[in-house]
Structure formats: C-alpha cells, structure tokens
C-alpha cells in the first residue's frame, strides 16, 4: 500500500493541468505521508485536504488520536467506511511519483514509481468531511501492474486524462471499472534512501 508520494509542481500549474480554479489551499509539502495535507481536485476546484480517513481503534486509550486510513482497496469500496464517499464524493489526487518500501525488515529503502514524460498524473481518490480533521481524502488501491508487482502486490489506481470526468462524475458502476492496474509504461527508481517514517 502507498504510504508516501510526492507532488512537486506548483499549485497554479496543477490547477491549469486539471482545468479547475484554485480553492482553499494551506501549506502542502512536496513529500506527503499519511495525515499530511495534499492537493486534491474535488467539487470542481483544487484544494488541500488531509491524507487519510480518521479511524478510532476500539481498544485505543481514552483521548487517543484516530489513525489515518490513507488507502482504500478497490475491492472493498462497498464497505460501510467507504461506500458513501465512493458513490458521492470521488476526487483526483495529483501525484508526481509514489514510493513503496523494498527490502528486509528494518533495512527497507524507498523505490519510486513515476510516469515517463508526465510530471503530474492523477490517482483515483475519495473524500469526505470529518469532525476530527475536516476535509480528508483516501487513495484507491488495486492490483499491482508488472512494474510494481515485484515490490508490492497493490498500487494506486492511476487514471488516464480521458477517464477523469467518468471518475469524478460518472455512475459508481462505471467508476468501479476504472479501478484496474496501470497498463502503460512506468519508470522505476530504486534508491538507497531508508524507508523511515517522519518524526
């Protein structure tokens, strides 16, 4: 599952690419981890939301913070936590590249995936408003394509530009059919950079 991605283009360039105006945008880092703010195309504008739906664990201590659930499996979109957002609030997540952890436990490194010639691409997402963190989004995951499969068995749903409108505004049945492994070419960059959660 994806727990780190980069969005390195300026927000006005991203808004032009997706053909939407700038909405309410706070500070968004280049590297986005679960719980961090990221850029999202939703409700006909580019705005920032926190990455991850809040989940309160049943055995958590009183007053404990919820855990951000940042990924949604495509085969679980009819589950209660995701159903209404998938049916009513789908979004596009602008991404420059995403990372997966690779290697032995305790020595994992970052492997980055990007689309050649596309400095920004769209990942399928869903969003909602929450009492805990305000507006939040989650990334849709599907089976890995051949470029990702030897690192992880799942990957983000990457949408072609001609599918953006169907994902955002089409019926859920049609949107569900877009949740498939990416069929095109991907660039893979294996690094020595350690996979370490931010502190």
Walk me through this protein's architecture.
15% of the residues lie in helices and 39% in strands. Strands 3, 4, 7, 8, 11, 12, 13 and 14 form an eight-stranded mixed beta sheet that branches. A five-stranded antiparallel beta sheet has the order 2-1-9-10-15, with no helix packed on it. The protein has a two-stranded antiparallel ribbon with strand order 5-6. It is globular and about 40 Å long. It has one domain: hypothetical protein yedk fold (Alpha-Beta Complex), CATH 3.90.1680.10. It has helices at 11-18, 80-88, 164-169, 172-177, and strands at 5-6, 31-32, 37-42, 45-51, 53-55, 67-69, 71-73, 90-95, 97-102, 109-114, 121-130, 134-143, 154-156, 158-159, 187-194. The chain is built from four helices and 15 strands. With 199 residues, the chain is mainly β.
Outline of the structure:
The chain is mainly beta. It has helices at 11-18, 80-88, 164-169, 172-177; strands at 5-6, 31-32, 37-42, 45-51, 53-55, 67-69, 71-73, 90-95, 97-102, 109-114, 121-130, 134-143, 154-156, 158-159, 187-194. Strand 9 (97-102) and strand 10 form a beta hairpin.
Tell me the layout of helices and strands.
Layout: E1 5-6, H1 11-18, E2 31-32, E3 37-42, E4 45-51, E5 53-55, E6 67-69, E7 71-73, H2 80-88, E8 90-95, E9 97-102, E10 109-114, E11 121-130, E12 134-143, E13 154-156, E14 158-159, H3 164-169, H4 172-177, E15 187-194
Parallel strand pairs: 4-12, 7-12
Antiparallel strand pairs: 1-2, 1-9, 3-4, 5-6, 8-11, 9-10, 10-15, 11-12, 11-14, 12-13
């Amino acid at each position: 599952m994806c727990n780190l991605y980069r969005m390195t283009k300026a927000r006005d360039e991203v808004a032009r690419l997706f053909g939407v105006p700038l909405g309410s945008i706070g500070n968004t880092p280049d590297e986005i981890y679960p719980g961090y703010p990221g850029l999202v195309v939703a409700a006909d504008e580019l705005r920032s939301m926190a990455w991850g739906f809040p989940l309160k664990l049943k055995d958590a201590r009183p007053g404990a913070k919820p855990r951000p659930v940042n990924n949604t499996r495509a085969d679980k979109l009819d589950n209660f936590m995701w159903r209404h957002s998938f049916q009513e609030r789908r979004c596009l997540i602008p991404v420059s590249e995403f990372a997966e952890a690779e290697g032995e436990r305790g020595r994992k490194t970052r492997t980055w995936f990007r689309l050649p010639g596309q400095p920004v691409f769209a990942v399928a997402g869903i969003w909602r408003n929450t009492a805990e963190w305000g507006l939040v989004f989650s990334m849709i995951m599907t089976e890995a394509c051949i470029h990702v499969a030897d690192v992880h068995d799942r990957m983000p749903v990457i949408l072609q530009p001609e599918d953006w409108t169907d994902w955002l505004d089409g019926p859920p049945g049609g949107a569900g059919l877009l949740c498939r492994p990416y069929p095109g070419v991907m660039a893979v960059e294996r690094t020595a950079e350690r996979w370490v959660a931010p502190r």
